[in-house]
Amino acid sequence: MNLTRGQRIKLAGLGVSGQRLSLGISIDAPGMTIDFACFGLDAQGRLADERYMVFYNQPSSPCGGISLATPAGDQAGFALDLSRLPAMIERLTLTAAIDGVGTMSRIRQGYVRILEDHQELGRFAFSGADFAEERAMMLLELYRKEGHWRLAALGQGFNGGLAALVEHFGGTLAPESKAPPPGPPPTPVNLRKITLEKPGQSVSLQKTGAGYGEILINLRWRPVTRAKQGLFGGLLGSGRTDLDLGCLFELNNGMKSAVQALGNTFGDYFNLPYIRLDADDRTGTRAEGENLRINGQHWDQIKRVLIYAFIYEGAPNWAEADAAITLRIPEQPEIEVRLDSHRPDRPMCAIALLENDRGAIKVTKLVEYYRGHLDMDRAYSWGLQWVPGSKD
What we know:
Layout: E1 2-3, E2 8-10, H1 11-14, E3 20-28, E4 33-41, E5 53-54, E6 66-68, E7 76-81, E8 91-99, E9 109-116, E10 119-126, E11 136-145, E12 148-158, H2 162-168, E13 193-195, E14 202-205, E15 214-220, H3 230-236, E16 243-251, E17 256-260, E18 267-268, E19 275-277, E20 290-295, E21 302-311, H4 318-321, E22 324-328, E23 334-338, E24 348-357, E25 360-370, H5 373-379
Parallel strand pairs: 1-10, 13-23
Antiparallel strand pairs: 2-12, 3-7, 3-9, 4-5, 4-8, 6-7, 8-11, 9-10, 11-12, 14-25, 15-20, 15-22, 16-17, 16-21, 18-19, 19-20, 21-24, 22-23, 24-25
């Protein structure tokens, strides 16, 4: 069934026979990044429990009735099990919001489709002609009425982005942490320690003697437990710290992959890729922190290494974690990169890039934040295939 804007229908009228279904979403909007969310709302249309906002930073509701899951052939999507939803959840509202530049009027075409057992039962299509300068929209809504679940094709534009949607539904956002503007690079340079102050600032280390020896990248952070402060504060601000160190690497032979605790891909120091993660510190209390070790005797085989940290579980605000990496190489000055700018709504930080610059090690400060591995991969053109992983 092709649904029209404003149309309402019982799910049974679409042919839905059970309580488990999927929503598949695709939007053709060149040059724009769009975030999708599903809000579980009460009878007043309010987000009574922030855990029922399911989006890239919170992929499942506590009951398991709403979860991120993309059907084959779609850009994004959600899996729903209506039988698991608590009685307080009276409606599910599917939304889209632009992250960055652009407006909904630039959409070429898009759709939301309703599936059961991988079979498409209904589709709501739309285009930018349906919108003006809005930066968000409510796509679709499922709601209870007289003991039955019904569906409404909304296609309703909304001023503001994801933050405005959250506030509209009664949630609150924790304020972003803003670091003071970084000062000028210190002069003269301390030959025993170099601190890269600004994103984009680089330093090159030349070989001495036989080579580089062990290249040690150490991550340290402060363990923090916080109370909730608004929606993103609740998502990122309570529980114990588990900040993980990892890297993407590319060798000169074309080999590309990642070294990290997630997925138990700890690497190998003596064999390809000549990079090894030594341990997984889940609390921030390990005296030596977490360390990536690169075998500098094989630096000529390495093209580039992207060092990153990501929040795996129960993480605090980046500002309070006070994280930093330190790079140590024998007979070379120590290099420090601090995570001194912060995004409380992004769990992934690309910290520094190591490049083989005609045999030298070029270290560049990045400190850029992303929604996850895939977004970071795309930003630096690594081209890996990503699937969900676990440490356990």
